[in-house]
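Hey, I was hoping to borrow your eyes for a little while. I've been staring at a protein lately and its backbone has me curious. You're getting the sequence in one-letter code plus the fold written as tokens. Would you mind checking whether the tokens look sensible for this chain? Here's the protein in full, and shout if anything looks odd to you:
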Amino acid sequence: PWDRAVWSAAEALGSLRAAVTGSGDEDFDSGDAEPARTWDELLQRLRADYDRDYFLTGDVDVQLYSEDCEFSDPFAGFRGRERFVRNLRNLA
């Protein structure tokens, strides 16, 4: 489908831009060095991500997500925290 092709092209262009400009290597991880230990902590840290507009800034609490987590929306789906964080940072 065309929407997957557009997503793949956008992801590839973002990675290319990051490689050419050297951007995307910043350490935006605002979270703890450890995964959340309680539901309350998880919710607090997740709210903090939204308050920081993580989707627009790339500033995400990486430890909220397992290394092999799956992300999916109507346009694309993929596995892996590293890919998710890379895509966020390419958008920023």
The mean pLDDT is 80. Helices lie at 2-21, 39-51, 54-57, 81-91.
